């Protein structure tokens, strides 16, 4: 069995649990969200976190694992739009999109359309938080993950910074689900018990890691450009649950994406049981 793991701070509690128990009945593949998305679509992984929009585009092939997601209710801190202008002035301006994500692209387009009624131009490319606009005529850039968190804590005078979690909350009044854990249907149907064990390991892994979050921050983030206090705060912004409130928010996100032709059809939310 091969399961994916996001190599970002937003999964630090699970990373901690993996580090405490080095022997597993499955192989762990660690990577950025975009590469994990591709790997499970190709059948190279059995279970993996995927960007929420990837499930929507491929829902016939997956079940969502219950009780676990990456979500935040309001500010998320790790999806940041950096802009030379106020966000409402970005109509027809070029926005660079990180190549590391999929959900955040659609989320930004929904916010631009429904909150600000504007249509920027978009370009996907590799981005650096240390030199955001070098060599480009772009007016704004979208970052996710550790890069976005770095920008939150290293804001430069003259730029505008927008947390997309806060923007979504302002638009909808709901939390936002950024990623879900999925299992390939063919694997789940042939290995139901194994899938259930993996699901339990993941949910318990997050609980265990969060119960030891100070130790996790101390032991696993020494090479990160953040203080202990900054990471402790972030670990209390991100949540790892999936209940009726999160499913409602996910459904609205999919509805908006469908209305704006960002996905081809409205997905069914099928939970593994």
TrEMBL record:
Catalyzes the dehydration of chorismate into 3-[(1-carboxyvinyl)oxy]benzoate, a step in the biosynthesis of menaquinone (MK, vitamin K2). This is Chorismate dehydratase. It catalyses: chorismate = 3-[(1-carboxyvinyl)-oxy]benzoate + H2O. Belongs to the MqnA/MqnD family. MqnA subfamily. The gene is mqnA. GO terms for biological process: menaquinone biosynthetic process. Keywords: Lyase, Menaquinone biosynthesis. It comes from the Bacteria. It is an enzyme of class 4 (lyase). Its EC number is 4.2.1.151. HAMAP family: MqnA. Pathway: Quinol/quinone metabolism; menaquinone biosynthesis. GO terms for molecular function: hydro-lyase activity.
């Amino acid at each position: 069995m091969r399961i994916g793991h996001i190599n970002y701070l937003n999964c630090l509690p699970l990373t901690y649990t993996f580090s405490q128990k080095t022997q597993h009945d499955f192989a762990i593949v660690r990577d950025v969200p975009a590469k994990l998305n591709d790997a499970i679509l190709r059948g190279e992984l059995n279970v993996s976190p995927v960007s929420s929009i990837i499930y929507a585009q491929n829902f016939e092939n997956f079940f969502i694992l219950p009780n676990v997601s990456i979500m935040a209710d309001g500010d998320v801190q790790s999806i940041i739009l950096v802009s030379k202008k106020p966000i409402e002035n970005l109509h027809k301006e070029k926005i660079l999109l990180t190549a590391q994500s999929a959900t955040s692209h659609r989320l930004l387009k929904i916010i631009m359309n429904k909150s600000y009624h504007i249509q920027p131009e978009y370009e996907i490319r590799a981005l650096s938080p240390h030199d955001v606009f070098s060599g480009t005529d772009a007016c704004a850039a979208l970052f996710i993950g550790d890069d976005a968190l770095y920008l939150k804590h290293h804001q430069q005078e003259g730029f505008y910074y927008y947390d997309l979690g806060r923007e979504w909350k302002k638009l909808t009044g709901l939390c936002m689900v950024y990623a879900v854990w999925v299992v390939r249907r063919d694997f789940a149907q042939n290995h139901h018990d194994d899938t259930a064990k993996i699901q339990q390991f993941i949910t318990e892994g997050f609980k265990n890691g969060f119960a030891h979050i100070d130790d996790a921050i101390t032991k696993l983030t020494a090479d990160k450009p953040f203080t202990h206090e900054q990471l402790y705060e972030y670990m209390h912004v991100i949540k790892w649950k999936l209940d009726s409130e999160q499913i409602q928010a996910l459904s609205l996100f999919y509805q908006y994406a469908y209305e704006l032709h960002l996905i081809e059809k409205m997905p069914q939310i099928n939970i593994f049981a």
